[in-house]
Amino acid sequence: MALPKLIVVLGTTACGKSGLGVELARALGGEIVSADSRQVYRGLDLGTGKITEEEMKGVPHHLLDVVSPNQGYSAAEFQRDAYAAIDDILSRGRVPILVGGTGLYVRAVTEGFTFTDSKPDPVLRAELEQKTAPELYAMFRAETGRTLSDGEENNKQRLVRTLEKLRSGEGLDAPASQPRYDCLLLGVDYPRETVCRRIDERLQKRLDQGMIEEVARLRAEGAADAFLDALGLEYRYILRYLTGAIPSREALFDELGRAIKRFAKRQVLWFRRDKGVLWLDMEGDPVGQALRASEEFLAR
Questions:
Q1: Per the count of CB atoms within 10 A, which of 56, 66, 119, 271 is most buried?
Q2: What pTM did the predictor assign?
Q3: CA distances to 23, 30, 98, 172 from 124, in Å
Q4: What is the 8-class DSSP label of residue 3?
């Protein structure tokens, strides 16, 4: 029996995924399911680039603002909620469009990963939480023989969860998969120099709109510094600015901009590994190209 059809818009940060998804949804009678590991949190708006109500242009969006700061939210939980949203959209005769740049979230849905039922061990969690990131990284290296880079070696929250998975026997390799949907993968990217320029322009705009004030408000409302730091990028670097570790707005712009560009490069490497992606000509007519591919896909 043919699998239900799902259109997916994926790719690099600051390259227009959200806008493209909206245009496709308007043309095809679709609804958006967000696949972003930070946009699931309430109140994290400017720092995550969360689409505004005006930018949605009346298109329903799902899996935005579903959990509160300080709460955990795993890829398995995302998959469960995404499946529910996509199946609901299909049941109403609408077209589901998965949009996002969190590679694991996207693949959890498109490849149908089968996650284990292992739960965090509270005793082990408490033990690991007392250790520093360098100590956790040393444990990770000792147990796996692998190294990490680009800041992952300092991401305490992720190191804790990774060590929990290792201790539970879950392992680090990709889980088994059973695809649930027939997917059209549409890739969004620009040449490297264009991506860097767009990142700088977007960063300046968000700072002007109050991104620093957003992080200060989140802290005042109870978001833990450890939570904000684990989110990485905007929240980690603005936290460092607010606590004095980064001395000026100019230094913040420079350090954060470089970190986002490194992240964008990792995104490209992640998504380019998938040979099934149709990479759109972003300097041509990406909406027209995506719409034609989508109409052909849906007609099959």
A1: 271
A2: 0.85
A3: 47, 44, 35, 18
A4: P
